[in-house]
Each structure stands twice: as C-alpha cells, then as structure tokens.
Design brief:
Layout (H helix, E strand, L loop, with lengths): L1 E4 L3 H25 L8 H29 L12 H9 L20 H26 L1 H6 L6 H26 L7 H8 L1 E4 L8 H6 L1
Helix pairs in contact: 1-2, 1-6, 4-6
The structure holds protoporphyrin IX containing FE.
Length: about 210
C-alpha cells in the first residue's frame, strides 16, 4: 500500500463546489416549487437559484475542458464487467466484510457501478437540468421566438431531475462511507491522497472466480 495522489487539486475544487451548488440549487429550487417550505423569501430564493445556476454552468464548462485535456474522461467509460458483482457487494457482501470486488487504482478510480451512475449523471441528469433551467430563464424570449412551450411541463421535468439528483446525493453520501474505512473516501476527496496498491489493476480473487 502506498499513499498516492488520487484526486488532483482541480478535481477536488470541482467536486466540492459542485456539491455546494447542487445543495443550494436544491434548497432554493424546492423552496420555489413548494411555497409552504418558506426557507427563503421567494425573491431571495429566485436570486440565489439564478446565481448558483450560472455558476454551475460555468463550473460544468471548466470541468468538461479539464476532463478532455487531462484524459480523465476515460474514467467514465462504462463496462458491464463486475456491475453484478458490485451490486451484490453493496447489497450483501459489504455486511459480511467481503473483499471489495474491484480494486481502486490510479487508472481506474471508479468501480463499474460508479462509472454507470456518474456517466448517467453527466450525460442525462445534468444536461436535462441545465437545458430545462435555461429554457425556464429564457421562457419569454422562447415564446416570442415562436416556441410554444408549456411552462408547467418544463418546470415538471426540471423538478423530476431535481428529485433524481437528490436520490443520487443520498446514495452517494452512503457510498462514501463504504471505502476501506468509513472515512477513507471522504478524506481522499479532501486531501487528494489515498492508500492504494498503485500497480494493481486486477479484480480481487473473489470476483475473478465468479467471472
Ligand atoms: C444549472 C442549471 C439550472 C438552471 C439554469 C436552473 C434554472 C431554474 C429556473 C429559471 C427556475 C424557475 C424558478 C426561478 O425563476 O428561479 C428553476 C426552478 C427550479 N429548480 Fe432549477 N436550475 C438549474 C439547476 C437546478 C438544480 C441542480 C436543481 C436541484 C438539485 C434545481 C431545482 C429546481 C426546482 C425544484 C425548481 C422549481 C421548479 C418549479 O417551478 O416547480 N435546479 N430552476
């Protein structure tokens, strides 16, 4: 085992700012949707939502650029291999102290299940949120340009996406605690360093036997 830099500085900055923005967008968005929540006054919720939304869009643009230029986008190439083993591990194995089916390495930081979920987030939920959000911001301009869109439908799709993000967030927070110690994943995303078997790209024996 060796302490290695797994999450680079930009990656950690992007991760934590994205988390903060999504939480603020959710708090203000659900406050707008459910008036009875009354976490902020309506005008304030609207202002914070707009500022966070534009910040989020800028951050996403920088993150896309960073992923392309560093080659880190390859981390998200999905694979069907070991997805079943990962689901079995999270549902059963984890409670019996079974070994992690796939080892984390520098060239493969995400397990197959994470690859699928994060890819879904990046190519489906975030684009849906940004597109419907921008359509809500420019709703009047779109109407004037002849696009006869339903405000209700746009807001409903946007809200369904928001619930999807909340489900992801809940699962993500739980999975953070399932590293080799309950805090190891969280510490790695704060400091950047994690103890890894640097050269190990092989699945552990338990899964190699199942495959
Ligand atoms: C980044 C892109 C986003 C943009 C451009 C955007 C924009 C908007 C706009 C313009 C509205 C209408 C209310 C208002 O005028 O402020 C809205 C509502 C809302 N947003 Fe967002 N938003 C984005 C991301 C998010 C995210 C990430 C979440 C949740 C995690 C979220 C949750 C909501 C909810 C729940 C509503 C209430 C919808 C309704 O009226 O029923 N938004 N958003």
């Amino acid at each position: 085992m060796k302490k290695v830099m797994v999450y680079k500085r930009f990656e950690r900055f992007w991760h934590w700012l994205q988390a903060l923005l999504i939480i603020l967008l959710a708090l203000t968005g659900f406050d707008i949707h459910y008036a009875q929540l009354h976490l902020f006054d309506f005008h304030m919720a609207h202002q914070i939502h707009q500022v966070c939304a534009w910040s989020f869009i800028v951050l996403v643009a920088f993150a896309i650029f960073w992923h392309i230029t560093t080659g880190e986008w390859k981390q998200y190439i999905p694979t069907r291999k070991y997805v079943g083993a990962m689901i079995q591990f999270y549902l059963v194995g984890i409670f019996k102290n079974a070994p992690h089916p796939v080892k984390k390495t520098l060239i493969s930081k995400l397990n197959p299940l994470q690859k699928l979920v994060y890819l879904g987030l990046k190519i489906l939920i975030i684009p849906v949120m940004v597109t419907t959000g921008l359509m809500l911001i420019y709703y009047n301009e779109l109407l004037a340009a002849g696009y006869n869109l339903s405000l209700g439908v746009l807001a409903t799709i946007h809200t369904i996406g928001a619930f999807g993000l909340m489900v992801f967030l809940a699962g993500h927070i739980y999975l953070i605690t399932t590293g080799h110690t309950p805090m190891s994943n969280l510490k790695a995303m704060i400091t950047g360093y994690e103890e890894l078997d640097e050269n190990d790209t092989q699945p552990t024996e338990s899964v190699a036997n199942q495959a």
